[in-house]
TrEMBL record:
One Gene Ontology cellular component annotation held by this UniProt entry: chloroplast
Enzyme class at the top of the EC tree: oxidoreductase
Cofactor(s) named in the record: heme b
GO biological process terms on file: cellular response to oxidative stress; hydrogen peroxide catabolic process; response to reactive oxygen species
Domain (Plant heme peroxidase family profile) ranges: 69-298
Superkingdom of origin organism: Eukaryota
Organism annotation: Pisum sativum
Protein name as annotated: L-ascorbate peroxidase
GO molecular function, a single term: metal ion binding
EC number(s) given by UniProt: 1.11.1.11
Keywords, comma-separated and alphabetical: Calcium, Heme, Hydrogen peroxide, Iron, Membrane, Metal-binding, Oxidoreductase, Peroxidase, Potassium, Transmembrane, Transmembrane helix
Assigned protein family: Belongs to the peroxidase family. Ascorbate peroxidase subfamily.
Sequence intervals crossing the membrane: 296-316
Length: 324
């Protein structure tokens, strides 16, 4: 026979702590851990899809009533446009709702769009902010006459804000544009197609230092942005240094000329590029629900620690009673 095992309070605490360290070490090194400041994985079930469709209808009404399509599209773009393909940080994760990020210089004026979306979010609380902002951008394009952009839900929210300076600087040229968009994993065609979204809206001096609209009708999504870029005389309409770069660079100009003469080609490529932008760093479709099993496993592992602690403490309690 073996001598009875003597467990003291200090030894028990040590044992529990060791078990905790082992389990959480395993979780940190596995794919099952949910990153700090990241929300739980979004479960895209029937109810979630129903809320998405209701939110889509609400966004259509809101955008039409407040003529805010350009603002909503800018919100979607700026939330997604922070993505870094190398570090896998930033992207369409809803972090722009945090003051630290919407206070960045490039995001001047977007608090208004965030507040508009909050009205929709209040009626459809299950939807992630990340999904809501990208859905707002998709709807903004559609209600102004643009192409239908395929929207896949399931983005999770993050409170981790990227540093300022990841978005394009309108005062710079083609090399800067490539640096920004290539960092995201996008192409020259994406750069030009997405720039076509300047067909909507206008620049405001208090936000960007520039003033004016790019097209005659800033609430109509069409290919007029590219037609105007190729015009020598477009008095009264805005052409930023980044806009002029699309004409000065031969690779970019090829797409500008194509889109100026063929709106269908522009709409097709824009819808494709917008979808890519809205899904940077996001794994859509069936893989969205994959973390559920992982979460269960993680919870089970933590449960083992708790169960072990309960058993040890129960033993100590009983042992203490017998010793009295």
């Amino acid at each position: 026979t073996h001598p009875p095992i003597q467990l003291s309070i200090s030894n028990s605490i040590y044992t529990i702590t060791l078990l905790q360290q082992l389990v959480f070490s395993f979780l940190r090194q596995s794919e099952f851990v949910i990153p700090l400041k990241m929300a739980l994985p979004v479960v895209v079930d029937a109810e979630y899809l129903k809320q998405i469709e209701k939110a889509r209808r609400d966004l259509r009404a809101l955008i039409a009533n407040r003529n805010c399509a350009p603002l909503m599209l800018r919100l979607a773009w700026h939330d997604a446009g922070t993505y870094d393909a190398t570090s896998k940080t930033g992207g369409p994760n809803g972090s722009i709702r945090n003051e630290e990020e919407y206070s960045h210089g490039a995001n001047n004026g977007l608090k208004k769009a965030i507040d508009f979306c909050e009205e929709v979010k209040a009626n459809h609380p299950k939807i992630s902010y990340a999904d809501l902002y990208q859905l707002a951008g998709v709807v903004a394009v559609e209600v102004t006459g643009g192409p239908t952009v395929n929207f896949v839900p399931g983005r999770r929210d993050s409170k981790i804000c990227t540093r300022d300076g990841r978005l394009p600087d309108a005062k710079k040229g083609e090399s800067h544009l490539r640096d920004i968009f290539y960092r995201m994993g996008l192409t020259d065609k994406d750069i030009v197609a997405l720039s076509g979204a300047h067909t909507l809206g206008r620049a405001h001096p208090e936000r960007s230092g520039f003033d004016g609209a790019w097209t005659e009708d800033p609430l109509k999504f069409d290919n007029s942005y590219f037609e105007i870029l190729l015009e020598e005389d477009s008095a009264g309409l805005l052409k930023l240094p980044t806009d002029r770069a699309l004409v000065d660079d031969n690779e970019f100009r090829h797409y500008v000329e194509l889109y100026a003469k063929d709106e269908d080609a522009f709409f097709r490529d824009y819808a494709e590029s917008h979808k890519k932008l809205s899904e940077l760093g996001f794994v859509p479709s069936s893989k969205v629900n994959a973390p559920k099993d992982a979460t269960v496993l993680a919870q089970s592992a933590v449960g083992v620690v708790v169960a072990a602690a309960v058993v040890i403490l129960a033993y100590l309690s009983e042992h203490s009673k017998r010793g009295k």
